[in-house]
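TASK: fixed-backbone design
INPUT:
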């Protein structure tokens, strides 16, 4: 028979366990300190790099995005504070603040036309026309970052996706699954009919009517009764080009 482990043996085992645990904690702490030291060195080099390339960062949107991604990889958020050191070096604090204000202006000016839904490409084109000559170029990634900074305003500003198509939503509404699905059908032609939805989705008339009514109330779609037998529902946010006569001058 095996001899039972005595109290002394148990104490020795517990002491060994505590010693190993302490040693493991010490090793882990040293690794953490070493990692923090490396990150600190990387941040210093990054700040030097940003300082030396400020003009390129401000004038080259692709380069700006790449530098911002480098910042994020090492835990530096240049947009965390408008007056933050890295934001000042990058020149992005005021840039994204200004861009956010312009996005709000455009979205408010066009809301009566598109129901608060606009393609990110159309928004970029409007921003380019609106910004002063010589201003920093704007790309879609800049728009996404600027919109992310508008979240505290609780105005519903966000990027939504319809079948891979990026849209900017500027109204605080819940886009239910049925509305998203029907909008997905209209991406290519910018319009749909009740029959389109019935054939492609096999929905009954009650479900179609409920969905269309919600979209009409929110202003996302317009209805065209020229074909009295089959009304067509148009999605202005999907128009490839909108006639200047249908938009107010302030929206440009």
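OUTPUT:
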């Amino acid at each position: 028979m095996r001899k039972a482990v005595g109290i002394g043996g148990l104490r020795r085992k517990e002491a060994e366990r505590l010693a190993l645990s302490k040693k493991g904690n010490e090793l882990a702490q040293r690794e953490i300190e070493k990692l923090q030291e490396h990150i600190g060195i990387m941040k210093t080099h990054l700040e030097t790099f940003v300082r030396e390339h400020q003009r390129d960062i401000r004038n080259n949107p692709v380069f700006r995005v790449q530098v911002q991604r480098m910042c994020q990889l090492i835990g530096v958020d240049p947009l965390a504070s408008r007056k933050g050191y890295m934001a000042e070096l990058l020149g992005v604090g005021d840039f994204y603040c200004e861009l956010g204000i312009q996005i709000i202006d455009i979205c408010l000016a066009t809301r009566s036309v598109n129901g608060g839904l606009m393609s990110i490409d159309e928004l970029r084109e409007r921003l380019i026309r609106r910004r002063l000559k010589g201003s920093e170029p704007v790309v879609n990634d800049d728009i996404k970052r600027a919109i992310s900074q508008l979240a505290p305003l609780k105005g519903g500003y966000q990027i939504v996706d319809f079948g891979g198509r990026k849209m900017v939503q500027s109204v605080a509404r819940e886009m239910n699954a049925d509305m998203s699905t029907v909008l997905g059908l209209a991406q290519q032609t910018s319009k749909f009919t009740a029959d389109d939805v019935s054939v492609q989705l096999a929905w009954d008339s009650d479900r179609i009517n409920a969905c269309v009514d919600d979209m009409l109330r929110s202003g996302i779609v317009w209805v065209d009764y020229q074909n009295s037998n089959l009304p067509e529902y148009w999605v202005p946010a999907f128009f490839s080009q909108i006639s200047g006569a249908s938009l107010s001058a302030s929206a440009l």
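COMMENT: Confidence is low (pLDDT under 50) at residues 79-84, 241-252.
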